[in-house]
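hey so u asked for the seq, here:
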Amino acid sequence: MKSKICVIFDIKKLLLVDGIGAMISAILLAGIVANNESIFGMPKQIVLILVVPPVLYATYSFGIYLFVHKNHGKYLKTIAIANLAYCALSMGYVYYYFDYLTALGLVYFIGEVLIIFTLVCIELKSIELGVLQKFGVVSKRND
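ran it, structure tokens below
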């Protein structure tokens, strides 16, 4: 019989990870991608538009992490959905500017979306497992 291994991450710590990731994204976009249009292919004005959501998301995640002391799951779910919207926006721009993007540009934007999508999956699964544990449907592991 095949067993599933589920890892539940601390929801509050995921907010911190999300905030750090968003800041890294904003720094890379504003500091490197925006200033190297010839290397990445995405127009600078579009890259600067793409910087705004990560800055807002980082502010939100850090704010919740620092100042909210309960019910982190609902806030994490909000940022997870916002991250998916950012992925859609980013991929929309990739599609629209596809003919201008270099191979490095494609790798950057697709890689960023894959990383964000993976984080969103971990966030949503952790929320789901946390709710199930709260209601006694699954038990906490103390290994």
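The first helix runs from residue 11 to 33. The mean pLDDT is 90.
lmk if thats what u needed
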